[in-house]
Q: What sequence folds into this?
């Protein structure tokens, strides 16, 4: 019996997984969408000046990367992901179907936004969201770098995310120092 697991990445896990995996393939998850809906008080902001990071919010679908993790690494990878993603328990850890580029559907471990959590920030006005991203920085660097790196990874995979493209275009158009 194959006891490998799948992990679905839709934000920084796509370009910085930080864990060993046997393969990484494009995948799509239905019923959830990538959204800048989580206030980050560690990685891309501080408790005094929170940034915004991605969460999977209800509705739509989300393109991302599914990572297959070998059985031998299973427990260590889950422990790593919990330490990375569950600092404040702002996500629900769930297994949901992900459709791989090949057409195969797998159950993938994924972190979905907890709308009842105090750090949930769904429904922010566009300009307010941009202001937060522009002014925030945390342990892993400027919030703007996180947002642009996520878009770049999607573009490198040939995936369009018009909502994220709009955010990055607005950030670049506001006299920021972002490069192409």
A:
């Amino acid at each position: 019996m194959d006891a490998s697991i799948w992990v679905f990445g839709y934000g920084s896990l796509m370009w910085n997984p930080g864990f060993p995996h046997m393969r990484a393939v494009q995948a799509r998850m239905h019923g959830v969408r990538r959204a800048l809906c989580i206030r980050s008080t560690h990685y891309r902001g501080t408790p005094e000046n929170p940034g915004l990071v991605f969460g999977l919010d209800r509705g739509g679908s989300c393109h991302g990367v599914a990572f297959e993790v070998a059985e031998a690494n299973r427990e260590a990878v889950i422990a790593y992901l919990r330490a990375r993603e569950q600092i404040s328990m702002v996500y629900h850890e769930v297994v949901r179907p992900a459709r791989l580029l090949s057409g195969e559907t797998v159950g993938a471990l994924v972190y979905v936004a907890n709308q009842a959590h105090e750090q949930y920030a769904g429904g922010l006005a566009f300009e307010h969201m941009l202001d937060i991203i522009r002014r925030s920085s945390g342990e892993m660097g400027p919030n703007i770098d996180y947002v642009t790196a996520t878009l770049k990874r999607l573009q490198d995979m040939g995936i369009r995310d018009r909502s994220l493209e709009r955010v990055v275009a607005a950030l670049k158009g506001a006299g920021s120092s972002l490069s192409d």
